[in-house]
Amino acid sequence: MTGPILRVRDLTTRFRSRAGTVTVVDGVSFTLDRGEVLGLVGESGSGKSMTGFSLIGLVDEPGRVEPTASVELDGRELVGLAEPEMRALRGRRISMVFQDPMMTLNPVLSIGDQMGLVIAAHHRMSRADMATRAAEALTRVGIPEARARLDAYPHQFSGGMRQRVAIAIAILNHPAVIIADEPTTALDVSIQAQILVELQRLAREDGTAMIWISHDLATVSTVADRVAVMYAGRIVEHGPTTAVLSRPRHPYTRGLLDSLPSRGEPGHDLAQIPGAPPSLAALPPGCAFAPRCGHADAACGVAPPATEVGPRGWRCHHPLEEARR
């Protein structure tokens, strides 16, 4: 089938609370091609992880994905899909690597049993064949003596090793889309590089598409083909990774880049974006970034329109000049 493997339109997720209804994902739209890696970046609380949960159908009450949203996986609409149908797709056609591997791993089951359950949920296979597939997945993410480690339990692994197991589980059934939520945070630099190479190989050779959720712009710059920058539940800038990170149009993107330690000067304080992200329960009128933005004026009291120029887009009344670096 031609066309994007994932097409997201007006994804909106809201939670009911005592303070009222809070919108945590606000009108997010993007497409994802086969074998493409989309980096989803922003500060903590910007809506990145909740976007991932919304895509894979893991938002429970009091939250809900608005029925006006559309998430098409290979042409099939996922919003409104009955849970048994969604469960048949989750882990087989679309999977997720969570920030905390203990959200994925059951402490009372061996690694082999847990991986076997994931395989058995979608395929009929002998125990020997399941063990072989599980060991191959562990080997791909750099776990030595993989066959023997199938009998181990999560508490017998370090935090980094558990994260590698979580990634192995996500790739077990060769999904079309993997949502990776800070997948290498718990790993040391050498293992992080190994995992990045392996996931890039998956995208290149198997055609697996990925959404790479991260606050680490350095990692995103090496792994992602395109990047989408989120703030207060919205995508405020998107485009090819090299273009966005070298010539940002939105002041928030510029602020994130200037905050990188690699851009600091010895003996000087690190640059930072002033203030703090707003409460989603009490967003300012107009542009949510305006209270922290040095370019804001009266026009920013009105929500900025979405501007699209070629493969790039942004939401800002005062976009930075292309030449500015």
Automatic annotation (TrEMBL):
Keywords: ATP-binding, Cell membrane, Membrane, Nucleotide-binding, Transport. It comes from the Bacteria. GO terms for biological process: peptide transport; transmembrane transport. Residues 6-257 form the ABC transporter domain. It is found in: Cell inner membrane. InterPro entries: AAA+_ATPase, ABC_Ni/Peptide_Import, ABC_transporter-like_ATP-bd, ABC_transporter-like_CS, Oligopep_ABC_C, P-loop_NTPase. Pfam families: ABC_tran, oligo_HPY. It is a peripheral membrane protein. Signal peptide: none annotated. One of its GO terms (molecular function) is ATP hydrolysis activity. PROSITE patterns: ABC_TRANSPORTER_1, ABC_TRANSPORTER_2. GO terms for cellular component: plasma membrane. Belongs to the ABC transporter superfamily. PANTHER family: DIPEPTIDE TRANSPORT ATP-BINDING PROTEIN DPPD (PTHR43297:SF2), OLIGOPEPTIDE TRANSPORT ATP-BINDING PROTEIN APPD (PTHR43297). NCBIfam families: oligo_HPY (TIGR01727). This is ABC transporter ATP-binding protein. It comes from Siculibacillus lacustris.
